[in-house]
């Protein structure tokens, strides 16, 4: 009887479609992200866990207001009011020790257990862009001031690449990136805009990591079927959260099979509302649809506060139906 593989090794096999032994709910990671990555202020109160009513600015100068308990703060003040004055705006420096020192501190604390050392590039381009300008100004800018938008996007990516060098210095094995590029029914903007403005800058960061053998976990909510080839061409290893209500999951699996792992696919609304037996049935269905040959982390399609019993039902269902090789497991289409 062979020894069981480690959790980290099983996750690697999922990402590489290399005969994993079980379906997992997520990546095992030890995070060493820079200070401010989650829109928290460098000093003073603010951030995701702050009380309702808290206001603050992040290291980019974007103002936030915490309006709902358990939900991230909403961007409400944008530091660049006019694209004509980009030259007067000073972005944060990736070499500011207040930002990067936490990377090295957390990396030194890494216990080298059964996990990947990871870093984060939250708000990689698009979500940083519209926070700086405001959504309407960013959308208009693509049409009316494209050169200024390119300049600002390049500035954003220069920061991300500076942070990437610190992550590389400590040996990160996985990086998380993300931009919400879709709505419930379509993309936020045309594929032509994505290719013209974003893909060249994405490629700068993605190539940096691909050359170093780092796994890329990319987050994009909404309807993303039209741009699957973009993600795969850039070298995304995992695409999340695979929003069930906005995509044809079977079609996405068909197009990504053997090329890009998927994470998510279970409706967050279902986990909130229940009941437990419906959660279990849906988990079983998703594993059949998306995880027969590996390449799937079974998870919620959004993160939010869950009823404990509903989330426990979800986790137990993944454990029950997601083990490869059992005669009764759900990774076989004819499972009972």
Key features?
336 residues; alpha/beta; TIM Barrel; seven-stranded parallel sheet; three-stranded antiparallel sheet; 11 helices
**Sequence of secondary-structure elements:** HEEEEHEHHHEHEHEHEHHEH
Overall CATH class: Alpha Beta
Q: Write down how many β-strands occur, each being a DSSP E stretch of 2 or more residues.
A: 10
Question: What topology, given as strand order, has the largest sheet?
Answer: 1-5-6-7-8-9-10
| Apparent shape | globular
Low-confidence stretches: 326-330, 332-336
In CATH terms, what is the architecture?
Answer: Alpha-Beta Barrel
Distance between the termini: 27 Å
Counted up, domains total 1
| Cα gyration radius (Å) | 20 Å
Biggest sheet layout = 7 strands, parallel
Short structural description:
Helices cover 40% and strands 13% of the residues. The chain has 336 residues and is an alpha/beta fold.
Task: Show the helix and strand layout.
Blueprint: H1 7-15, E1 29-31, E2 55-57, E3 63-65, E4 74-77, H2 97-109, E5 116-121, H3 126-133, H4 135-144, H5 146-170, E6 174-178, H6 191-210, E7 215-219, H7 228-234, E8 238-240, H8 249-256, E9 261-266, H9 268-273, H10 276-290, E10 296-300, H11 308-321
Parallel strand pairs: 1-5, 5-6, 6-7, 7-8, 8-9, 9-10
Antiparallel strand pairs: 2-3, 3-4
What does this molecule look like?
It is a single chain. Helix content is about 40%, strand content about 15%. The protein has eleven helices and ten strands. The chain has one domain (about 5-45, about 80-320): Alpha-Beta Barrel (TIM Barrel), CATH 3.20.20.210. The two termini are about 25 Å apart. It is of the alpha/beta class and about 325 residues long. The strands form two sheets. A seven-stranded parallel β-sheet has the order 1-5-6-7-8-9-10, sandwiched between helices. It has a three-stranded antiparallel β-sheet with strand order 2-3-4, with no helix packed on it.
